[in-house]
Amino acid sequence: MKKKPEVTAQTKQNIIDAFWSLYCEKRIEKITVKEITLKAGYNRGTFYEYFTDIYDVLEQIEESLIPTLDELPPISIGNENMGIPIDMFMKLYEKNSKYYSVLLGDNGDPAFASKLKNSTKPILKQAFAEKYEVNQVEFDFILEYVLSVMVGIMSYWFRHDKAMTAEDLIALMQDLMENGVMEHLSK
């Protein structure tokens, strides 16, 4: 007898939710399949119908959070002051904040930040290549720098309960990218 797709999807989601609640409390190497299945209300066999191990659960969560090139909005570099589209990253971060704040936090997955940055680099490269003649090696370093800063500052913002408005944070980031830290501090 075949299982109903909606029941199968709900079972998988229940296991993911149980894993996630444990992952929010402790590091992945401290989580067991037994804990997950006990929390979700299933047996070990059910777990293994959907996942190969605990790391597979995390991998599937992360894969669902990494935007594909099709999901990212097109970027156009219209004016000379336009830099990296910070608001695009802010919307993406806020949409997935439940997960991003943990995955990019102190106890999260160190590889997730790289996956996130690498997913957005191609669209940024394309947008800037259409407007500017850039040295690709240098541009790779620039993108890594900017994306690392953006991921870091948004993680910090979430960890500190959004101590400033999203609009103020975007304005601060744009000011820092366009004018630099020293210029901003001397205002």
Automatic annotation (TrEMBL):
> What InterPro entries has UniProt attached to this entry?
Homeodomain-like_sf, HTH-type_Tx_Regulator, HTH_TetR, TetR_C_Firmicutes
Ranges for domain HTH tetR-type: 9-69
Kindly indicate which segments of the sequence are annotated as binding DNA.
32-51
The record lists the membrane-crossing segments as 141-158
From which organism does this entry originate? Litchfieldia luteola
Highest taxon of the source? Bacteria
Q: What is this protein called?
A: TetR/AcrR family transcriptional regulator
Record's keyword annotation contains Acyltransferase: no
List UniProt keywords, sorted A-Z: DNA-binding, Membrane, Repressor, Transmembrane, Transmembrane helix
Which PANTHER family does this one have? ACREF/ENVCD OPERON REPRESSOR-RELATED (PTHR43479), TETR-FAMILY TRANSCRIPTIONAL REGULATOR (PTHR43479:SF7)
Q: Which residues form a coiled coil?
A: none
Which SUPFAM superfamilies does this chain map to? Homeodomain-like
